[in-house]
Write a structure and sequence with these properties.
The chain is an alpha/beta fold. It folds into two domains: 165 residues, 3-Layer(aba) Sandwich (Rossmann fold), CATH 3.40.50; 61 residues, Single Sheet (S-adenosyl-L-methionine-dependent methyltransferases), CATH 2.20.130. Helix content is 20%, strand content 34%. The strands form two sheets. Strands 3-2-1-4-5-11-10 form a seven-stranded mixed β-sheet. Strands 6-7-8-9 form a four-stranded antiparallel β-sheet, with no helix packed on it. Strand 7 and strand 8 form a beta hairpin. The longest helix is centred in the middle third of the chain and has 13 residues. It starts with 8 loop residues before the first helix and ends in a 10-residue tail after the last strand. The structure holds S-adenosylmethionine. S-adenosylmethionine binds next to loops.
Length: 243
């Protein structure tokens, strides 16, 4: 999805679908009215659909490991800085007021990947700054289910998808999301693609332990969509050097 199908992202998950999530998130981030915009680093920013709604409030640096997804975001958010990099190992050598990891964090599928990603977040967050992480599910909130959607482009292309989340083994740390895509080209020819995503699933207490270990002790809450939202505050002893 994030390589061969990246150019389809605006038809799969356009900025309009992220307005509610941004409206839920913004009040949690203590924006000071009248103060200069705070800086925000997003890890795994994808096509920049959420960032589209945040960039009025923050000076944003958007990172992703997929060149295709980053190209989509550059078109949607030309005023934002874009950097290619893996959230487990990225090192920019500077710090931000807020570090956000939204719906990319589920691609950390083992504890080492989560820990490495939280170290990246801590390393790039100033002391007293905020790290926000929004996994689609924690072990306690996981529900199998289906979703569907898609849209049309002015050039005649169209996409429709079915998304099916299920967990073949409740004892391990992952679940599966199967996507079935119908892709209509501008000439009307329709093709089909299947994409299987393996995503991480960890209990809330394990998450909170990993945040504390990384030097960003966190609290968790459910957002208005019933999704876990971890808010960590970077203390003075984040793991590793500041940059
Ligand atoms: C669901 S998309 C993010 C969509 C984004 N929230 C938006 O508003 O458009 C997930 C993204 O995570 C990225 N990703 C997955 N694993 C990553 C990693 N290890 N480092 C950086 N990006 C990663 C993928 O390339 C993909 O663009």
């Amino acid at each position: 999805m994030y390589e061969d199908l990246a150019e389809w992202w605006p038809l799969l998950s356009p900025p309009a679908e992220y307005e509610g999530e941004a409206a839920d998130l913004l009040p949690r981030l203590d924006i000071v009215p009248g103060a200069p915009p705070a800086t925000m680093l997003e890890l795994g920013a994808g096509g920049g659909s959420l960032a589209f709604h945040l960039k009025r409030h923050f000076r944003m640096t958007l990172t992703d490991r997929s060149p295709g997804m980053s190209a989509v975001s550059r078109a949607v958010n030309p005023e934002c800085e874009h950097v290619l990099g893996d959230m487990r190992s990225l090192r920019l050598g500077r710090q931000f007021d807020v570090v956000l990891i939204h719906d990319a964090i589920m691609y950390a599928t083992d504890p080492e990947a989560v820990q490495a990603t939280l170290r990246t977040a801590a390393t790039h967050c100033r002391t007293g700054g905020t790290v926000v992480v929004l996994p689609d599910f924690v072990r306690e909130t996981f529900e199998p289910g289906t979703d569907h959607g898609g849209s049309d482009a002015p050039d005649g292309r169209g996409l429709r998808y079915l998304e099916w989340s299920w967990d073949p083994d409740a004892a391990d740390d992952t679940y599966l999301v199967e996507y079935a895509f119908l892709l209509r080209a501008a000439d009307g020819i329709v093709s089909v693609a299947h994409d299987r995503h393996v995503e991480g699933l960890f209990a809330r207490d394990r998450w909170l332990g990993w945040f504390a270990e990384a030097g960003i002790p966190a609290s968790s809450a459910l957002d208005s969509f019933g999704r876990e939202i971890f808010l960590g505050i970077r203390n003075g002893s984040a793991a590793g050097p500041a940059v």
